[in-house]
Recover the amino acids of this structure.
């Protein structure tokens, strides 16, 4: 009951005219950037970071939460209308959604995805209300070694479990950790990787990293691939669903939610796996198997619900443990640090009003998004007609302004350019961006926890493996890393043996396409 | 010599196409239909779908005219594309559709029709949607 009371208190904080206005602004901007492929909530939140330092933390978080949820809604619009996922989590939606749109059922596809997102978002946010305080209770008892183990598990999760290639994920994480250690060592006071530049002694500001990698990197990438034939406009119409569509949608919505939320709440996070699972499940359970591959509404409803529920779920580790498992959450954590609030298990006890206002704003934002997306879908689709040069000129302008505003030193602009080139190179070579940003934000934290654990035992390495929680995490890490090696060896044996045609990893064909599509649009996670 | 018409898939494009057919008949010249879409946007409302172009071809076939339908999906400026084609193809007249633009809209985005009217080296026939 405590949770409910706190939540009602949170609603009290959110339901002021100013905060509602900010929430509306957030969801509007979020939907817009979600619709545009390549520009996602993470980039937007990064661009807005310097501006929000002037706001109250509550208002800043309400804005970011709106953008975060809005991006989920907007991404599906692009998937359905254009077959170009606005975001990695709506890759699966494109499989059936675009077929529906081509068959003249764009309105129904948009409706089922918007209403499904609303249902899943609401249930998922309720899930946060009940699950998050429990996780906090558990997390407060954790010592440095356990916390270290959980962070390492998160690293493994975002590098090895998500994304197409483990090696690329690891490489991106290492780049991120390297950027994270630049600056003065907080124990010994040595300068690390500063190259003698006094401007680097304080470390590289997260704003500059995030804006450089997301905004400048993406702008350079688009500039290198500017020319692409335009698609024809698919008539949208006002989203609506017939009785039959409702009947076929509500179960996939609930199943998608049930799949998405737990995956999001794990400290490995990510929306790709639950959306894929939901798609496969709906394909198996459907009464209309002949429609799959030709625009089955279940194939839109399930994954869309799954990605929103998982987005809600990722806020559990973010708020309870201070562990971001998607790029937007990572930058929201950076924002918290910018306001001088320490994320982590103590956040809920130290700043309860802030946390509950954030959660209440998620409910409000979700409702706004439904009202904003159902009648206005045709207007959102018009955003796709904005010429790219205008769009990216604006992004680069805000990026430079934001990076300069952090410390008001021209040096940061050079840094921004260098980081932008790194971001471009990562897109060019297919390195995922999420591990890098997680590395930058969690790198200093993992270092501090590791050193603290070592200091407790006087430098004895056994101090790093204290307690059953840590053992459990390390066991999971070993499994996650060793599993592909084991299955590789097994696969080879199976091929040598007679009749060993067991190709365990082969999914149905559209799913492999979805994977490929994901690496194309690598900027969002 | 050729009659060049800029075709867009809406009422304006239909009006321009109708006028260009009459003009080609009157002059006894070949008709060149160009549909242009920009390559720096994700979707372009001025891009004609394959079925729309097929319908134009079928209609022109029935009218017993010598014609060519060309789709250009490169570049960012419809006026420039039409003017380039008019110079390469010995065009005797360019037919375009003209829509109402507010002064502010023209100031912000410019007007493709205006640029064609000013820069073309041949007569331009500007048609309003009926």
């Amino acid at each position: 009951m405590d949770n409910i009371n706190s939540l009602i208190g949170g609603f009290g904080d959110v339901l002021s005219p100013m905060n509602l206005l900010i929430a509306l602004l957030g969801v509007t901007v979020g939907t817009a950037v979600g619709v545009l492929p390549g520009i996602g909530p993470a980039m937007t939140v990064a661009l807005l970071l310097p501006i929000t330092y002037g706001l109250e933390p509550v208002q800043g978080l309400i804005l970011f939460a709106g953008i975060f949820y809005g991006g989920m809604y907007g991404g599906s619009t692009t998937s359905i209308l254009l077959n170009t996922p606005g975001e990695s989590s709506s890759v699966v939606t494109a499989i059936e959604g675009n077929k529906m749109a081509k068959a003249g059922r764009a309105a129904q596809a948009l409706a089922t995805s918007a209403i499904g997102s609303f249902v899943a978002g609401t249930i998922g946010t309720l899930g946060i209300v009940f699950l998050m305080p429990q996780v906090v209770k558990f997390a407060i008892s954790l010592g440095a070694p356990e916390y270290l183990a959980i962070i390492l598990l998160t690293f493994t999760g975002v590098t090895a479990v998500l994304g197409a290639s483990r090696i690329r994920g690891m490489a991106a994480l290492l780049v991120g950790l390297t950027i994270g250690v630049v600056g003065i060592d907080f124990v010994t006071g040595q300068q690390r990787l500063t190259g003698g530049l006094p401007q680097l002694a304080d470390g590289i500001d997260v704003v500059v990293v995030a804006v450089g990698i997301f905004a400048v990197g993406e702008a350079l990438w688009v500039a290198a691939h500017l020319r692409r034939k335009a698609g024809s406009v698919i008539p949208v119409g006002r989203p609506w669903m017939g009785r039959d569509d409702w009947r076929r949608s509500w179960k996939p919505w609930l199943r998608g939610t049930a799949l998405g939320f737990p995956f999001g709440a794990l400290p490995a996070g990510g929306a790709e796996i639950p959306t894929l699972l939901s798609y496969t499940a709906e394909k198996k359970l459907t009464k209309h198997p002949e429609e799959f591959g030709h625009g089955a509404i279940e194939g839109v409803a399930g994954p869309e619900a799954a990605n929103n529920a998982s987005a809600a779920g990722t806020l559990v580790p973010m708020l309870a443990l201070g562990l971001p498992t998607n790029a937007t959450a990572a930058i929201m954590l950076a924002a918290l640090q910018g306001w001088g609030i320490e994320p982590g298990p103590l956040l809920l006890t130290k700043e309860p009003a802030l946390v509950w206002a954030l959660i209440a704003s998620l409910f409000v934002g979700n409702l706004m998004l439904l009202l904003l997306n159902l009648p206005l879908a045709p207007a959102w689709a018009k955003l796709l007609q904005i010429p790219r040069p205008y769009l990216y000129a604006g992004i680069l302008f805000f990026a430079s302004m934001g990076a300069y505003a952090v410390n008001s030193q021209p040096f940061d602009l050079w840094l921004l350019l260098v980081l932008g080139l790194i971001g471009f190179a990562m897109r060019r070579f297919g390195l995922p961006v999420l591990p890098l940003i997680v590395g930058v934000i969690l790198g200093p934290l993992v270092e501090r926890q590791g050193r603290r654990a070592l200091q407790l035992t006087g430098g004895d390495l056994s101090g790093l493996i204290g307690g059953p929680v840590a053992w459990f995490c390390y066991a999971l890490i070993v499994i996650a890393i060793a599993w592909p090696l084991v299955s590789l060896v097994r696969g080879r044996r199976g091929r040598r043996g007679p009749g060993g045609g067991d190709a365990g990893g082969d999914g149905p064909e559209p799913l492999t396409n979805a994977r490929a599509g994901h690496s194309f649009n690598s900027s969002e996670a | 010599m050729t009659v060049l018409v800029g075709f867009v898939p809406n009422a304006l494009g239909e009006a321009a196409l109708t006028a260009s057919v009459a003009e080609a008949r009157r002059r006894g010249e070949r008709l060149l239909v160009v549909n242009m879409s920009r390559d720096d946007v994700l979707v372009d409302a001025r891009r004609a779908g394959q079925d729309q172009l097929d319908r134009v071809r079928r209609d022109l076939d029935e009218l017993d005219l010598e014609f060519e339908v060309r789709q250009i999906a490169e570049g960012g400026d419809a006026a420039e594309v039409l003017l380039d084609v008019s110079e390469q193809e010995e065009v005797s007249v360019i037919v375009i559709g003209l829509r109402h633009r507010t002064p502010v809209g023209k100031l912000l985005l410019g007007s493709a029709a205006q640029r064609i009217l000013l820069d073309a080296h041949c007569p331009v026939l500007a048609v309003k949607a009926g």
In short: Chain A touches chain B at residues 36-37, 81-82, 84, 226-234, 381, 384-389 (CB under 8 Å). Residues 106-140 of chain A form the longest helix (35 residues). Chain A has 21 helices and two strands. Residues 2-227+234-490 of chain A form one domain.
